[in-house]
Amino acid sequence: MPAPMLDLQPQTEPRKAPPAHPAPAQARLILNNPVPKPPAPQPMTGEPALLGAAPARPRRRHWLIAASFLLAVIAPTLIAAAYLIWTAADRYGSRLAFSIRSNQTAAPLEILGAVTQLGNSSVLTDGQVLYDFIQSQQIVETVRARLPLEAIYNRAPADWVYSLGEDQPIEDLVDYWNRMVDVSLDPAIGILTVEARAFTPGEARAIATEILAASAELVNRLADTAREDAVRYAAVELTGAEARLRDIRARLRDFRDFEQEVDPSQNARVAIALVAGLEQELSQARVQLDLLRGALDDKAPRIVLLKRQVASLEARIAAERTRLGAGAGPGRDGRRPLSQVVGEFEELVVDREFAEQSYTLAMATYQQAEAEARRRHRYLAAHIEPTLSEAPQYPDRPLLIAAVFLFALAAWSILVLAGYNIRDRR
Questions:
Q1: How many domains does the chain have?
Q2: How many CA atoms lie within 13 A of 155 on its CB side?
Q3: In terms of Cα–Cα distance, which of 286, 122, 133, 323 is closest to 214?
Q4: 3-state secondary structure of 271
Q5: Residue 295 belongs to some domain of the structure
Q6: How far is the CA of 37 from the CAs of 10, 13, 16, 242, in angstroms?
Q7: Scanning 24, 73, 273, 336, which has the fewest C-beta atoms within 10 Å of its C-beta?
Q8: Domain-embedded: residue 36
Q9: Containing structural domain, residue 103
């Protein structure tokens, strides 16, 4: 709240007008004690004076806050600046970008995914595999077998922050690798961007080149494995289909040998036609017999002959029907009914046709797998080759110094406010 203003003008009682004719005693009193003049007004200053306020003096806590500011903010900033200016070594970056492409014709769903920026799932899967591979121990061991990584990362031994150090285990080397190699994956189009850093531009480019080579080898190895698996699975399916076809053909051959018939369905059609002809002859014989019975005696030779002809036709028709399967039990010669034979034969024929179709499909799949195995479906395409830096990009000294200062200032402010909050609550 603003301090109350001090009224510098004295508050005087209003004087009463003297009587027109004062008394002699009162006149003598006025002459002996004249009315004092009011003091001159004092000029107003910029800051109003506080009633009873003592001048401000720094206390012990103020000195502690100032000392803590120097220790917690200024000192870390000066240390970071000294390290970045005199000790930190320059680092160079080599950038490359690549993606995994396929020479297969895109399906309608994949075209729709490209339009809607959903991406190809197979390409995204391969990109994720490479993203994990570049950060793994496997690529570190691969690059270390081709380049002296320990010597490259110890070019600046005075830089104790960004130097690898001597005799480091593989786990520490992998952690340091992930600090010196940045990799990012664009999920929309499957592009990987890699930046390799080192203390010299040539070594940074050499590391980036080895990363590209190792990634291409991984893609080719995975593609070869996929093609070999496809050919192997197709060969297994072809072998199974061929075995099933051989088995059904052997069963069909045994069936024909046992039944002594090549095609029982044709025999069935012949038997049906024979029964139809016999029934027609039987009908004609019965009509003639009925006509002669009205004119001749039953013992007449012609009637007796017709009766024998009718009986013979009926017996023949019954035998043919029994052979076709009309009735229970085997035929007169002990063989199975023709309906059972035809039914089993048709089942074997259907199994053979299915086995032949399966074999044809398996053969086509195997031939296609072999043809696809001779082509490269997945390959690594680098649209940005490893670059060679001419000026150091790291460390960004002004940015890091400002970051240290702001972080230290924020931490110090939080601690001071927390301390005052605790003090006020007591």
A1: 2
A2: 17
A3: 133
A4: helix
A5: yes
A6: 11, 13, 16, 136
A7: 24
A8: no
A9: 82-231+377-415
87 and 223 share one domain: yes
CB atoms within 10 A of CB 407: 14
Same domain, 198 and 273: no
Q: What is the largest CA-CA distance in the chain?
A: 205
Task: Using a pLDDT cut of 90, give the percent of the chain over it.
Answer: 31
Residue 47 is classified by DSSP as: S
Contact 337, 233 (CB under 8 A): no
DSSP annotation of 332 reads: T
pLDDT digits (tens, 9 = 90+) for 30-72: 445 555 555 555 554 444 444 555 566 777 777 888 888 999 9
| Same domain for 393 and 272 | no
Question: How many other C-beta atoms lie within 10 A of the C-beta of residue 95?
Answer: 19
Measured CA to CA, the distance from residue 324 to residue 267 in angstroms comes to: 10
pTM for this one? 0.61
Q: What is the DSSP letter of 91?
A: B
310 in Cβ contact with 289 (< 8 Å)? yes
Residue 320: C-alpha distances to residues 113, 308, 329, 343 (Å): 68, 18, 14, 17
- d(CA 393, CA 209) in angstroms, rounded, equals 19
Asked if 420 contacts 62 with a C-beta cutoff of 8 angstroms, the reply is no
In a domain, 70, yes or no: no
Q: How far apart are CA 415 and CA 269, in angstroms?
A: 105
Compute φ and ψ for 82, nearest 5 degrees.
-65, -40
Same-domain pairing of 245 and 313 = yes
Q: In what order do the strands lie in the sheet with 181-186?
A: 181-186, 191-198, 92-102, 378-384
Q: Is residue 60 part of a domain?
A: no
Task: Answer for the pair 207, 160: CB distance below 8 angstroms, yes or no.
Answer: no
Same domain? For 409 and 316 the reply is no
